[in-house]
Amino acid sequence: MKFLDANQSYTFSKIFDLSAGIDEISSDFGYSFAQTKLNRSQFQGKLERLRELRERIEEILPFVILSTEMARREILISRVITEVVHYTHAQLRIEYPLKVSEQLQGSLDYLLRKENQVIVIEAKKEDFVGGMKQLAVEMIALDQWIESDQEVLLGALTTGNLWQFAQLNRTEKKIEQGLENYRVPEDVEPLLRILIQALF
Fold first, then answer.
1. What pairing do the DSSP bridges indicate for beta strands 32-36 and 174-178?
2. Is this structure's pTM higher than 0.85?
3. Buried b vs exposed e over 150-171: b needs ≥16 C-beta within 10 Å?
4. Which residues fall within 8 angstroms of residue 43, CB to CB, at 6 or more apart?
5. 22-197 has which CATH code?
6. What CA–CA distance (Å, rounded) separates 144 from 136?
7. What span, in angstroms and rounded, lies between the C-alpha atoms of 135 and 62?
8. Is 176 exposed, middle or buried (0-12, 13-18, 19+ CB in 10 A)?
9. pLDDT by residue (tens digit) across 140-162?
């Protein structure tokens, strides 16, 4: 059974609004879906600016109302992502337009790319179910778009103060949603270490 109309055009954000589940949408594109503990490897080097980052976030949080997606992007998400860029020198694209087909198109909130490694990050105000569905389709689009030997694509879904990972095994055509959650600022160290390691 197909959940997407082959004669209709979809964007990533439109798929977010569909009632079909992540497993059903993934299946339409020929991918399987599962939820599991990912246990992503972490960067073991020194993070010399970690304490400063955590202190800056903790200092400003009492004075900001994080009621909109834009506020969360400006205050929390951008700080984490720019730290990743600092340590990895990865290229950062924001609102990156991507079109693979009429059913795989739209803008990626954040795309980090270093040599043959990429990470896609989707920012949402609060809906993790719809957001993970959108992230899965964005990873499928990247799988079909990039030409590299990167075996596993990493994606992250975030509300700013909460992060969750997903990965796509390109050989097995399998998407896995991680059961682990990372909070900012409490878990900013393991979060950074996972993101940094994925780009090396």
1. parallel
2. yes
3. bebbbbbbbbbbbbbbbbbebe
4. 87, 192, 193, 194, 196, 197, 200
5. 3.90.1570
6. 13
7. 30
8. buried
9. 999 999 988 889 999 999 999 99
